[in-house]
């Protein structure tokens, strides 16, 4: 239950109380700040409380945005504000600071505005809603009320609500082929009481059925898989639009939204590989390569954004040129399509699945994503080299968390600390060498499943420890996590492929999927502002260098069939470990109620 307190001169015939009840508020009235304070204190501490001026005139959706959005501790529009439990103490202090008696009319005449300013000064996490064409105002005179009502009538708030349900930044395919009708599907779901989490789950189930159809290996199965994958993407767009349309953000929704996209895509890759195997074509290496490439691409995106989103002096000629190009309409869409975002990528996969073979699907996917990765990474390297940004301690910690260094790298880093200069290129060079030394060895050796490979993995761990021995504040230090990801994932792929026994590559696929889930979970915790997973989990999983050492030891000590069994067991153990901790966190009260507002690559 939420409580709305009307405080101010009453207005006869106003629909405000009805609107507040429509939004789920229990409406009470207070004649002065003292009475308002008493009512606020009477509301249980775990409930939301709103303060609204009875003279408020505006759209219902303006009130909805200000009073029901769960993402912000406090929010306000002119004439109305709300405080969730996290900001209740600040609201109580703000009411208590308002003086009473002669000379205080300017503070109490529009009490909501005074409280809003006080919450803003108190740094209570106040969010001032951007209204756009919506109306929200306090009408102090009959003439002002009439003008405000005319302004409200001139704007269709339902049309605004539908329009703003769509992400502000989406790919070309999503914007023009999906969103024109998926927003209406979102409204249909809202009017029938469906939640975004239910739609997200439906999207996952649809994608899993699509993967099952692809696994049949028949032309009819491939055609059905393509159609179902596209429908899954429609539902994937709908769940976010439903969340924005009805403001149903939640911690569980944030977790589902953060993980299901990758689960759907990677399950579909596995389905294609199984379908190809039924037709006598082994494409597991291509499927695993596609998953590795996509995950490394995302790590590049996440690491670059985390390194730069709160940096100071964060400008460069390259960024300025990018901004100029964004001012030319057609270049915006070309540049968004070049990076092959999820909409374009899933459309390509669906069409090629229906018309061609799994091998062609993976070839197109690998080539397209490799070109997109080169384009985006090159642009980010240029931006980083031409700017003089000063990275924060928070950004350095985020990059260190994304590096996923285990106990061995930590020990090496402590012994090497102080021997490098923060801000130099030492960290990315050491990280690159850590991955390159290992990959060159396992790729070009005739028999990489030897004890010499274990020694090379040890050298790789030494270089990895040196890479993270100083705070990651250098211009290119955001490359450290993707170098580590590439080294770990590709090593698993190559060793499994060189084992050359049935089941080795599917086992490696499962292992990389489990580790990738852990890395995505780390990303979304950081983006939600709650920090990385607990250190005990990182240590228990061994860190990237620890896992590499374990895998190289298993490859050297076991037969190919034994190595396959060991990879399977390791995949199951890691998956259970990271999933249990992830689920525990995302259903807890610590988890952030956030959703992505831009289409991920």
Question: What features would you highlight for this structure?
Answer:
601 residues, mainly alpha, six-stranded mixed beta sheet, disordered C terminus
Describe this structure in words.
With 601 residues, the chain is mainly alpha-helical. The chain is 68% helix and 5% strand. The protein is built from 26 helices and 8 strands. The protein has helices at residues 16-22, 33-42, 60-67, 85-96, 105-108, 111-121, 142-154, 157-164, 172-191, 196-215, 219-246, 251-278, 284-308, 317-326, 329-338, 342-355, 358-386, 393-403, 407-416, 426-444, 451-467, 480-499, 504-527, 535-541, 543-557, 560-586; strands spanning 2-7, 25-30, 49-52, 56-58, 74-77, 80-83, 126-128, 136-138. The strands form 2 sheets. The protein has a 6-stranded mixed sheet with strand order 2-1-3-6-5-7, sandwiched between helices. β1 (2-7), α1 and β2 form a beta-alpha-beta unit. α13 (284-308) runs parallel beside α23 (504-527) and α23 (504-527) runs parallel beside α26. The longest helix has 29 residues, at 358-386. It starts with a strand and ends in a 15-residue tail after the last helix.
């Amino acid at each position: 239950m939420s409580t709305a307190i009307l405080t101010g001169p009453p207005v006869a015939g106003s629909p405000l109380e009805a609107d507040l009840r429509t939004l789920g508020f229990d409406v009470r009235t207070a004649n002065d700040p003292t009475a308002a304070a008493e009512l606020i204190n009477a509301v249980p501490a775990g409930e939301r409380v709103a303060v609204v001026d009875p003279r408020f005139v505006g759209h219902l959706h303006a009130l909805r945005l200000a009073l029901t959005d769960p993402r912000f501790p406090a929010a306000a529009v002119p004439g109305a504000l709300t405080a969730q439990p996290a900001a209740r103490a600040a609201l109580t202090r703000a009411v208590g600071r308002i003086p009473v008696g002669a000379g205080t009319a300017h503070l109490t005449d529009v009490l909501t505005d005074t409280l809003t300013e006080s919450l803003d000064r108190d740094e209570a996490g106040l969010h001032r809603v951007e209204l756009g064409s919506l109306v929200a105002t306090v009408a102090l005179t009959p003439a002002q009320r009439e003008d405000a009502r005319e302004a409200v009538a001139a704007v269709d708030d339902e049309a605004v609500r539908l329009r703003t349900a769509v992400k502000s930044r989406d790919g070309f395919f999503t914007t023009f082929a999906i969103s024109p009708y998926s927003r209406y599907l979102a409204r249909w779901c809202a009017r029938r009481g469906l939640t975004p989490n239910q739609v997200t789950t439906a999207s996952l189930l649809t994608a899993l059925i699509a993967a099952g159809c692809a696994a049949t290996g028949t032309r009819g199965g491939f055609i059905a898989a393509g159609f179902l994958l596209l429908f899954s993407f429609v539902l994937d767009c709908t769940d976010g639009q439903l969340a924005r349309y009805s403001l149903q953000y939640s911690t569980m929704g944030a977790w589902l939204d953060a993980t299901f996209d990758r689960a759907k895509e990677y399950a579909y890759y596995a389905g294609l590989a199984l379908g190809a195997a039924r037709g006598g074509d082994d494409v597991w290496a291509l499927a695993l390569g596609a998953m590795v490439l996509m995950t490394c691409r995302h790590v590049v995106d996440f690491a670059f954004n985390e390194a730069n989103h709160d940096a100071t002096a964060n400008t460069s000629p390259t960024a300025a040129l990018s901004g100029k190009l964004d001012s030319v309409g057609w270049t915006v869409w070309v540049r968004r399509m070049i990076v092959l975002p999820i909409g374009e990528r899933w459309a390509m996969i669906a069409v090629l699945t229906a018309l061609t073979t799994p091998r062609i699907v993976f070839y197109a996917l690998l080539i397209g994503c490799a070109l997109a990765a080169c384009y985006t990474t090159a642009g980010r390297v240029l931006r980083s080299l031409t700017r003089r940004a000063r990275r924060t301690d928070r950004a350095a910690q985020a990059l260190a968390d994304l590096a996923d260094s285990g106990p061995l790298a930590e020990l090496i880093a402590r012994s090497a600390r102080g021997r490098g200069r923060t801000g130099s290129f030492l960290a990315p060079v050491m990280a690159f060498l850590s991955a390159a030394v290992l990959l060159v060895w396992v790729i070009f050796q005739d028999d990489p499943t030897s004890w010499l490979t274990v020694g090379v993995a040890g050298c790789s761990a030494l270089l990895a420890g040196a890479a993270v021995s100083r705070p990651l504040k250098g211009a290119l230090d955001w490359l450290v996590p993707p170098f580590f990801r590439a080294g770990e994932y590709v090593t698993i792929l190559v060793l499994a492929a060189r084992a050359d026994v049935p089941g080795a590559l599917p086992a490696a696929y499962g292992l990389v999927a489990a580790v990738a889930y852990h890395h995505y979970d780390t990303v979304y915790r950081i983006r939600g502002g709650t920090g990385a997973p607990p250190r005990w989990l990182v240590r228990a999983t061994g860190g990237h260098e620890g896992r590499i050492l374990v895998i190289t030891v298993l490859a050297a000590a076991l037969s190919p069939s034994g190595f396959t069994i060991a990879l399977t067991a390791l995949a199951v153990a890691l998956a259970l470990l990271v999933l249990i901790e992830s689920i525990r966190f995302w259903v807890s009260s610590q988890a952030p109620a956030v959703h992505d507002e831009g289409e991920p690559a």
